[in-house]
Amino acid sequence: MALPPNPAPLNPAMAATFAPPVPEARRWIEGVVFPPERPLLNVSQAAPVDPPPEALRRAIAESVIERPEMHLYGPVLGMGALRAEVAAQWSAAYGGRIEPAQVAITQGCNQAFCAVMSTLAGAGDEVILPTPWYFNHKMWLDMQGVRAVPLATGDSLIPEAEAARALIGPRTRAIVLVSPNNPGGVEYPAETLAAFRDLAREAGLALIVDETYRDFDGREGAPHDLFADARWDDTLIQLYSFSKAYRLTGHRVGAITASVARLAEVEKFLDTVAICPSQIGQYAALWGMRNLGPWVAGERAEILARRDAMRAGFAGLPGWRLLGCGAYFAYVEHPDPRPSPEFARALVQEAGILTLPGTMFMPEGDPAGQRQLRIAFANIDVPAITELFARLAALAPAGASA
Fold this sequence. Notes:
The chain has 402 residues and is of the alpha/beta class. It has helices at 12-16, 21-27, 54-66, 80-94, 109-120, 135-143, 161-165, 190-203, 243-246, 260-273, 279-291, 293-315, 340-351, 382-401; strands at residues 41-42, 103-106, 126-131, 147-152, 172-178, 206-210, 236-241, 254-257, 321-326, 329-333, 353-354, 356-357, 372-376.
């Protein structure tokens, strides 16, 4: 649908930024009728589709009635009790020392990224992003006139610090890593993260590690030892989301862990954009952290079971190649002769599947994206995953013969 011309001036950087991928994909199903025997399998967006557990919903409801502060402005950098809880739990989980003053609460992890990046880079600066990248990271950099420098990861989807070294220039300000990765699903080895920390420190850059999906990491124990470094806050900035672990997507609660000096600059951004995070969402996150440990462990076990079902399904699907699988995502190479944007749209009609093409996660013109898809399996259970593979298998002969 063609949009009417904008009568007012438009920021060129905004005009040059691509449309949000998830809403764009949703438009592909407008007007499409899915028969009862083949309902839509929506694997386009990585988000829980169920509300929080009842105990948390009741705690939220009680807070709305009984806590007047839920309806007032709070501290710009977040509720003190929640900052302290994050600091304590992160210190224990990662074997390091994190102070409450080194934690800030934000309106979701996307805002955390925007806030941090606003303190690091301005128009004309550069930030290194491994590809395939998280599209919202790329979009924010585009809007700010910051150049995203792609770091290819090859078939392993694991970036290499030495490859990043060659991309560092005089305008480079930061390296951004996402682990477990969105969209690739891979979990970065601790050695990889340590190598990037060392590189960033040597080059005087910030290392941003987005751990939105840390609660669904398939490994036991701490996934890295970055916080065990006594000087961690001279280089490391960690981002986190409460949305996935506690099903709080609609409440928008995220966190930044960084130096006190960095958060003083972040405060300027947050005060201007939101004044303070949602009090209700923060209370929900705090209650969840204090009371839902066993429940989150059960959620993790369910996601890992779905991961295993995805791995098994692709192992038996001719022509398809699984590049990465973990947390909420499978990132795959498809056998169909059509480019991934065309193939992804065709899957809606031909198989009742809504997924995202790899071109939404890659630099424009990168040929790898034309062969790739991201499948977000967090919102489909194991029986639905079985159905997903039955539908893909029905397409396999045509794709394999091409």
